[in-house]
Amino acid sequence: MSDEEHHSESKADDGASKTYPQQVGTIRKNGYIVIKGRPYKVVEVSTSKIGKHGHTKCHFMAIDIFNRKKLEDIVPSSHICDVPHVNRTDYQLIDISEDGFFCPLTENGNTKDDLWLFTNENLLKRIKDGFNERKDLVVSVLSTMGEKQINVVKDIGTKN
């Protein structure tokens, strides 16, 4: 990725950037990086010695945050890449509608009635089964670059 390829997309509603620039050589394991327009979590990074073209290269093994696909990328360590702003928010689940919308309780005590999130089938089954068993559930929602997904569910007890 050359410096000319670097770009940062912005949301129209609040002007906040979806990504920020960072030098490739400073990205470490368990960090995040944008590869081919998708957000990835770095699971392994190695650095090569200076080659015949004068650049140290970083070799990344990374997993897409949302679809879990693995990808490898090699980038000169002195170049700039995009790093996604990744947010994780925990919500207490209070209802699931017939059409698949989750109704969580926000931190300030309000409800969100428009939260429809794709998640993997196993996690979705655990959420629905736990809810039907009247368990108190907390779902963690991972969001970045305009996408959201439930990635963890925690059982915090049984409803009275």
TrEMBL record:
One of its GO terms (biological process) is positive regulation of translational termination. Keywords: Hypusine, Initiation factor, Protein biosynthesis. Translation factor that promotes translation elongation and termination, particularly upon ribosome stalling at specific amino acid sequence contexts. Binds between the exit (E) and peptidyl (P) site of the ribosome and promotes rescue of stalled ribosome: specifically required for efficient translation of polyproline-containing peptides as well as other motifs that stall the ribosome. Acts as ribosome quality control (RQC) cofactor by joining the RQC complex to facilitate peptidyl transfer during CAT tailing step. InterPro entries: IF5A-like, IF5A-like_N, IF5A_C, NA-bd_OB-fold, Rib_uL2_dom2, Translation_prot_SH3-like_sf. The keyword GTP-binding does not apply. Residues 1-21 are annotated as: Disordered. Belongs to the eIF-5A family. Residues 85-154 form the Translation initiation factor 5A C-terminal domain. Residues 1-16 have a biased composition (Basic and acidic residues). GO terms for molecular function: ribosome binding; RNA binding; translation elongation factor activity; translation initiation factor activity. SMART domains: eIF-5a. This is Eukaryotic translation initiation factor 5A. It comes from Capsicum annuum (Capsicum pepper). eIF-5A seems to be the only eukaryotic protein to have a hypusine residue which is a post-translational modification of a lysine by the addition of a butylamino group. It comes from the Eukaryota. The keyword Cell membrane does not apply.
